[in-house]
Amino acid sequence: MADLSADIQQQVLAARDAKQTLNIIGGGSKSFMGREAVGDRLDVSGHRGIVNYQPVELVLTARAGTPLTEIEAALAENNQMLAFEPPRFSGEATLGGTLACNQSGPGRPWTGSVRDHVLGVRLINGLGEHLKFGGQVMKNVAGYDVSRLQAGAMGSLGVITEISLKVLPKPAASRTLAWDMGAQEAITFMNQLASRPKPLSAACWLQGRLYVRLSGALSAVEATLKEWKGTELTQDQANQFWQQLGQQELPFFDTDLPLWRFSINSAASIPALDEYSLIDWGGAQRWFRGEQDKLHMESLAAAAGGQVSLYSGGDRRSEVMHTTPAVLQAIQKRIKTSFDPDGIFNPGRLYHWM
């Protein structure tokens, strides 16, 4: 457990004086995401440790380099969890990197994303200033919501040093049902289930089989099991499936092909791809692997009411995020300039123009 914020601050100031750029690295588990990284390595993995944890208040504060495994172990002692179920990437993932890359697991539509659980952050901006945004309480209305702005920014706005977030109790019961059906039928069925007041906590379709997880009070879970009447998985089978899905360790993800991630309307259909996809988040997130033209994929995503990104593989020197309209580009550039006027942090990692 070490507070290296002063050292990091000095490295940022030195880079600014020397007109050098910095490539922020934590556990290095998500280096495959975004565009090709450039700049001198700024290693923040040593800046780690839980600063404050209040189980009764359901709030935890930790330094950005803290491994998720360390945080989850502390929470488990109090039967609590990170409800956004972030992937650990073989135990190398850190809290800061998880926020910077906006990583959330199968329960995201029902329990929220990492962005939804963040209460406050501290970060070092491009001027070397150590700033604090938000707080350590759930009801906080002080200032701009800069904390959540860090979700998905991939370190382009500054070096996150500390994060406060809310945690939740583990559910009293969790069970999984499965049905054999095609992709289009599964999309319709998942949306029908999601509209009902039931303890649904995850829904995923893969290779002709729909998996639905129920989590919550034992009485509610058991009543829903009887009503929905699917094939119930054993606890070991269910734990293994959701664990492998959340950690992106299913055989589907073990590929050298480009991996595309769609974030779209949950009820939308993409006939050309759906039967070959992994459909998660009750239909709102879809993974597809294969060589495809990016503009074609963007047109499919737009027609389905969302966006697509080249999550991994492919040409990382080209744009990998969905094309941003000129108006949004202008806003993002202004935000970038306000935090990092000299363009020190992770230049081009998110977009070539930022």
Automatic annotation (TrEMBL):
Residue intervals of the FAD-binding PCMH-type domain: 1-170
GO molecular function, one term: FAD binding
Keyword Hydrolase: no
InterPro entries assigned: FAD-bd_PCMH, FAD-bd_PCMH-like_sf, FAD-bd_PCMH_sub2, FAD-linked_Oxase-like_C, Oxid_FAD_bind_N, Vanillyl_alc_oxidase_C-sub2
Keywords: FAD, Flavoprotein
Superkingdom to which the source organism belongs: Bacteria
Alphabetical list of Gene3D superfamilies matching this protein: 3.30.465.10, Vanillyl-alcohol Oxidase, Chain A, domain 4 (1.10.45.10)
One matching Pfam family: FAD_binding_4
Name of the protein: Glycolate oxidase FAD binding subunit
Organism for this UniProt entry: Neptunomonas qingdaonensis
